[in-house]
Amino acid sequence: MARRSFSLMLAWRYLNPRRAMLSAVTLISVTGVLLGVLVLVVVMSVMAGLEKEVKERFLGFTPHVRLEYMPFGGFREPLEQWRETAEAVKKVEGVQGATAFMQDYALVDVDSRQRPAFFRGVDTDDTSQVEGITAMLDQTEHPGSSADMGLDDRIVISSIIAKQFDIGVGGKMSLYSARNFEQVKHVYDITSRPPLREEFAPLLANAKEMLAKPWEKRGEQLFLADDAVDALYIPLYEEIYRQDVRDPEKEIIGRVLKMMDEAGEAEGGLLFAADTQAQMLAILAELDETNVEEMDAAILKGIKELVLPKEATVIGVYQASQMALTPDIFMPLPLAQELAGMKGAVQGISVRLHDPYHANQVAQTLVNALPPGWRGITWTEELGDFSRLIAQQRMMMYFALSFIILVSAFSMMAVMFTVTIQKRREIGVMKALGAAPGQIVRVFVHQGMILGFVGALLGSGLGLLVIRFRGNLQEVLRHFGFDPFSSAFLGFDVLPAQIKPEEIVVVAISSFLLCSFAAFVPAFFAARSDAAKSLRNL
């Protein structure tokens, strides 16, 4: 006990050699450790809080498991009878709710300003989805925001869209379906084609020639051999009927094909009524009388209803984040179905779980319980890249900022080397008086331990204090025009943080051990010095 007291007493003596309040060397060493621990504690808590907040926001409106019907591999089929499947899914253990899933793109128009927007359909009967959107509403910049969309053309938009179009609660915007443009292009391609009598003149001439030739008579019916049937039927069906042509012209070709489909079967060919040949020839002759301008006018008239936009009212604005992909617009399911061109059908089943972190197990259970062709996509798959990015960022931040503590430890080691050199005469005297090498080592190790303990304790305490008042610090920085954590980018007015005690303890203990080791190295060499050589300098 005496030896320990001797080493510890001398360590305190060396830390404050001038009997002042604090030694400058001691203060500098403690400050280095303090800053390293403080920065690590703050950064770890902020990164953990950011990941937690983004996941909670993402899970507020995103299905924990999305079920899609893919009977042909990678091609998703629309679901019309989705309610029956949703009811069956709700009965599976671990499932909280199941409803329709619908998302797509639309063209937003506000005062002749347009941009594409990603929208998500919301089943407003599902309270969990509505509550998830309500939790994200920006009541500060857009007071009165609501997620009560009902079944009307009322929508909730992101703060990014609101800022770009300078629109808020009560504003109106027009939504054009992206499917319209595909159909408009289809109509354009059809109306750009020449009439069938010109585009397929040789093929039609050959068909008329075959119809004009006498067919074999069998009683009161006409017989046409299989080879002749194929020569007439296949070109009309494959080369004309299956093409994108004008409906009136397609209907004429369809009538001819129908008459051939309804013919009676006979060995080696087909049997037709006596007047069928003349009727088919007369039908094909109608193609020579079609009016292209009238047909195109009828087609273009149908576009008017096709491209009419849906006018929607903004009832809420939510704070979007650049840290995660979120929809530009939330809208009621019926409106989403209409804009996606899937009236009555949906893209999949949105499943919410009691515990979203069991999504993989529940997804497998659901796929096994459903008929073949179903696929389950979990939120961890959709958020996987982002989670890995956050984890990598955290590790890189820890790695980079850990060098602050490492530099502090090296600085302390340099200070300890300097102290041992300055105290070499005293070390010689102690050894001459019988002090053991272990006692001398403990003198300087105790100094490092004291500095490491005080620095780690103060750094952890100040780090927790910074986290506690981070909102006030942000306001001070914003007051001076400096906002490194803009809410427009992060999606949070106050920088999120999550305190993980185990991480803080690891940082504090690591700092303490590094400082202790930094003091041990010079102490080890000092204890091995020759006492006689040290005393010669007295």
From TrEMBL:
InterPro entries referenced in this protein's UniProt entry, alphabetically: ABC3_permease_C, Lipoprotein-release_system, MacB_PCD
Annotated compartments: Cell membrane
Membrane-topology descriptor: Multi-pass membrane protein
Residue span(s) of domain MacB-like periplasmic core: 26-175
This protein's UniProt keywords: Cell membrane, Membrane, Transmembrane, Transmembrane helix
Transmembrane segments: 21-48, 395-419, 440-467, 504-527
Highest taxon in the source lineage: Bacteria
Name of one Pfam family that matches: FtsX
Residue ranges of domain ABC3 transporter permease C-terminal in the record: 399-529
UniProt entry tagged with the keyword Heme: no
Family in the record: Belongs to the ABC-4 integral membrane protein family. LolC/E subfamily.
PANTHER family according to UniProt: LIPOPROTEIN-RELEASING SYSTEM TRANSMEMBRANE PROTEIN LOLE
Protein name as catalogued: ABC transporter permease
Protein source organism: Luteolibacter flavescens
